[in-house]
Structure formats: structure tokens, C-alpha cells
Amino acid sequence: MKITQEPIQVLLVFSKEDGQSDAFWWACDRAGFRCNIARTPESAVECFLDKHHEIVVIDGRHSRYFEPEAVCRLIRATKPSENTVILAVVSQRPHDQEETSALPLLRAGFSRRFVENSSVLACYNELVQIEHGEVRCHFKLRACNSVFTALEQCQEAVEITSEDHIIQVTQLFKIKPLECSRYHRLNTTMSVRADRRKDSMDARSLSSRGSDAQSLQNRRYSSVARIHSMTIEAPITKVINIINAAQENSPVTVAEALDRVLEILRTTELYSPQLASKEDDPHTNDLVGGLMNDGLRRLSENEYVSCKNMSQSQLAIPVTLNDVPPSIAEMLNDEECWEFNVLDLEAATHKRPLTYLGLKIFTSFRVCDFLSCSEATLRSWLQLIEGSYHSSNSYHNSTHAADVLHATAHFLRKDRVKNTLDQLDEVAALIAATIHDMDHPGRTNSFLCNAGSELAILYNDTAVLESHHAALAFQLTARDTKSNIFKNIDRNQFRTLRQAIIDMVLATEMTRHFEHVNKFINSINKPMVAIEESSTTANIRNSPEDRLLVKRMLIKCADVANPCRPLELCIEWAGRISEEYFAQTDEEKRLGLPVVMPVFDRNTCSVPKSQISFIDYFITDMFNAWDAFANLPGLMEHLSENYKYWKNLDEMKCKSLRRPPPS
């Protein structure tokens, strides 16, 4: 149903026309209110009973014509007046006379008093304040009374929906009895008017049901009625119901605070903090807007297609781990150290670090044994995956994948992580890290959505790249038995493994960043701290839900661990991601697309400021939480030093990656 309100009706009760009555008349005209004038108490009551005015203004300055209190009582004696605001106009008092009490007027039935003022604006202000205050409250009460009256008379199941036909679960009524065979829905697209005169409702349905297949419809309506008589509730509904119950016996201040809590709970962005204005912090706003939004939803004729055709001919001849050149093998000996330099490996392998590092790490974690696949199959698969990364990207290339894989393995070796996850979780994490950005076009989700790319259309502008990375990985893996690492595992085990891999890849999408971090803090960190503070020997819960949160947090931290690397690596990665964002801004301008991150203009951008914003907004809290769980003091020291480095550059007004050479 849709509750609509007709223009406000105002009744002026003045025995004669003067400047005050004219001022209220013109004020009503200015506010768009309908106005009637009555000169006697009898005509006032008659007019009121006919029109049911929301506001009545009674002249109380000249008692020789009529008693204003008597007129007010006559109107209050009628039933419609319970929803009416009655205003008394009183004379101005000389400055040397004491102010009179308003209590006699209130006892007579007046709602407010107005000291005479023939200014149209003063009268207008008084009327609109009444409209936005008491009148709107009375209107809502009348509408609620009408709805409840209709519901009391209804002998059928009633469902309340939004204008989009979405059931509003928290407002669902259970109307008994439910024995009837028909099922009705009160919908906001129905035309319903709360009638002022009769407190009743006129409803007109937009459609009517035909009489064909009546027995089938009866069964369907009865089934739906039974469903809505069940007591199944979503957790958020239970929370809202508990808060509503707590409000009933709470002081006004507490009830108002709980109202604000309910408003927050009913939003969809429960975990995203509110940013300062763009003027206050343009770097953070642009960075967050570019990373956490799926685009501006404005499509153009320009199209960016990211997926390229892959063929086995692009792949290098597989090598065994024993065939690795000595220089590369020596580098890989340091793989378990956090300071491992993946950029040196990139140079030594001619931009093919993922295959070499993948062989070393997968062997260390006995992935082939778990998947029952040969080393040759694993080698082919790693080369297939690495071949799908774009070496032309400055940041999102196979070196980044190798870096994330290295960080993932480092985290998996931490004692608390090892004790939390099982081997399937470890294998899923390593595979997810390897594939998490494959076929990345070097452009953000926002760019693809704004450009109307094939991928954005395919994935409905939602987690476009992350969905593509996961889907393409499984497509390519299944295409050739020589590189299908999943071909020998049990179907049920494969489904569990596949689900875990997909979940971790999707977790790298930034729109749900704060949701994942806050869930980890509330479900993992806080219970862990409580156990440690109580000095008990109780173990931390190791439920599937907790393992899921740990895996998401693990890959999220691995994906953006650059600020926690040694300074030189941190600087290099900052330069690479900045260059990729610069290239995107250049292309957006060239194609006439919305510029998602305007601060990443290569001619004006301050790289130190962008890094400071990224660390402040995304990194610090997340790694503090991860460090509290996994114990990573070395990483946190690097993070602190790197942050100081960017701060010093910013204080020097330096916009580049490094300090300018001394002049």
C-alpha cells in the first residue's frame, strides 16, 4: 500500500477580518494549505465537521464576540478533533506586565498559543512548524490505525513488501486464523489513502487473479500461508526484535540511541566506515572509491575487453625442480624468509617467477601428494596459470602472484595458523594465491564497469575481476588433462576444495574489506584475547566458520603485504601500482570515461600521500589484527619503518618515490 497525504486544511476562527486573519490567510496560501474562515462558533464547528481540518486557529484576543475556550471545547467535543492541532492567538502584553500562564489554554483543549503578529512570515513559520511536528505525527497515527483496523478485520495471511515486491521481514504480521484458502499481499504499489473523515482505507489492487486452475492456486496460497506461519527468523531479525523489546521499558535517551542502532543495522553497508569529505582527504577518497566500488554504473560505447586468447603454444617447455639453474636455486633457498626478494627472482627467470617459486612452495607443502597428481602435471599447470598473467602490466602480473604466493606460504607456516587450518585449507590457500589475479587487465573493476566491458556485463558489475580470475582458472585447468591437477581427487573433496579456493579469491575483492576484517576481529581476535586474559587452558574454537575467516584474512593480507616488505621492495611495489593507476587515468581521459581516481594523475599525484592513505585506511588495522593472531613482529617493524619513510617524504613536499638528490 502507499500512504499519501492530501494538502493540509486550516480553519481560521476570527469574528472579523483584520491584519492578523489576513496574515494567516496569506501564510496558508504560501504554504500550499487549504484555508477556510468561520466568523461564529456554530459555523466553525459545522465547517470543522465537514472538512476535518488538521490545524484550527482561534482568535482569543476579543472575548466580547465569543469565548475562545468555549469554541475550543466545542471542537474538542467532536471525534475528528483528536488528530487536530488547535492554536490560540493571544494579545501582546505590555513590557511592564507579567507573562500569563498557558495552562488555562491547555486545559481548554488548545495545543499551542501564538502571540499576535501580523507578519505573514511569522504566521507561515508557525504553520510549517506545526505541519512538520504535530500534524505529521497525527497523520502517521491515523495511517497506523487504518492499517491495524484493516488487519483486525482480515482473516487471511498478510505480507508487507517494498515497492520492489521485496518482503519486509521485520514488519511481517501473523494474522490468525490462517485457515482461509486465499493469500493477500499488501504492496506499496497499491493505491491506498488514509481517509481523514472516516479513519478508513480505500484500496485498489493493480491486478486481479483469474479463475483458471483455481485448485492449483488454492494449494499455492495455502502453502505460502503455512510458510509465513513458521517461526524461522534470520539472525539480524532476532537482533532487531531484541532491541525493539529493550526499547519498550527504556528511558527516552536510551530508546533514541537504540533507534539510531536500528537505523544502522538496517543499512547494507554495515562494515564500511564513513570517509571524511573529499576536500579533507582527496587521496583516501579517490583510493577507496576506486578500490571499493564496482564502478559508477554509467556505461559508454567504449568497451574494454580484458580476456585474451590463450594457447598452449605460448607456454614454455616444462622444467623439473632439479633442472633449475644454480643461480635461481640459490635464490629459492631463501624462500622461507620474509625478506625473500621476488623481484630478483623475476629478473633471473625473465619474468617467469611464478612457475619456479610455485614448484618450490607446492613441493614444500606436499601439494602433489594431497592432489594425487604428478610433478609433471603440477609443472604444466603452473606454467599454464603463469601464461595467463599479463607481463605488460606494471603491477598485476605473475610477479605479483608469486609475491602473494610467497606471503601465503609464510603465513601458513606460523604456528597458530598451522594449528587452525587442515591440509585441504593449506592447499586451497596456495592455489588461490597462485590464481587470484590471472588474466588481470591492469584496470580496476570500476573501469570495467564504466567502460561496459564484456566481463562487467557477464558478472553484472559485481566482483567482476575476482569472479573472472576464479572462473578462468578452473576453465583452463579442466581443458587439458596434462595440466589438470584436480583430475585424480574424489568428487566431494574437489567440490570442497573448489569452494574454498573460490571463496578466498573473492575475498580479495575490496568492497567487502571492512566486513572481512571486522568479522575476523570479533570472531577470532576478541575471543582469543579473552581466553588469554583469563589464564585458562581452553582452546580457541576451530570451527569451519572460524577457519573460513582465517583463510580470508590470510589471503587478504598476503595480497596487500607490500607495505610490510623491506623498504626497497615496498618502494618498488608502490611505484608499480602507481604506474598502473596512472595508465588507467590516462585511458579514462582518452576514452571519455569517468575518472575513478583523479588524484592518480601522473602530472600531479603525490605517491607518498597515496601510500600514507592506503596504509592508514586499509593496512594498519588489518595487519594489527592479523599480527595478534599469527605473531608477525618482523612485518610490523617493516610497516612502521615504511610508514615513517612515506611520512618524511610527504613532510618534505616530495611527490616522488625517493628523496630528490642533493643540489
UniProtKB/TrEMBL annotation:
Instruction: Tell me which residues bind AMP.
Output: H396, N397, S398, T399, H400, D437, D559, Q611
Domain PDEase span(s) in chain numbering: 320-653
Report residue spans for region: Disordered: 194-217
**Co-factor remark:** Binds 2 divalent metal cations per subunit. Site 1 may preferentially bind zinc ions, while site 2 has a preference for magnesium and/or manganese ions.
Q: In which pathway does it act?
A: Purine metabolism; 3',5'-cyclic AMP degradation; AMP from 3',5'-cyclic AMP: step 1/1
Q: Where is the composition biased (Polar residues)?
A: 205-217
Which Pfam families has this protein been placed in?
A: PDE8A_N, PDEase_I
The record's listing under SUPFAM superfamilies reads: HD-domain/PDEase-like (SSF109604)
Which UniProt keywords are listed?
Answer: cAMP, Hydrolase, Metal-binding
- EC number from the UniProt entry: 3.1.4.-
GO MF terms listed in the record are: 3',5'-cyclic-AMP phosphodiesterase activity; metal ion binding
Q: Can you name this protein?
A: Phosphodiesterase
Upper lineage is: Eukaryota, Metazoa, Chordata, Craniata, Vertebrata
Identify the coding gene.
pde8b
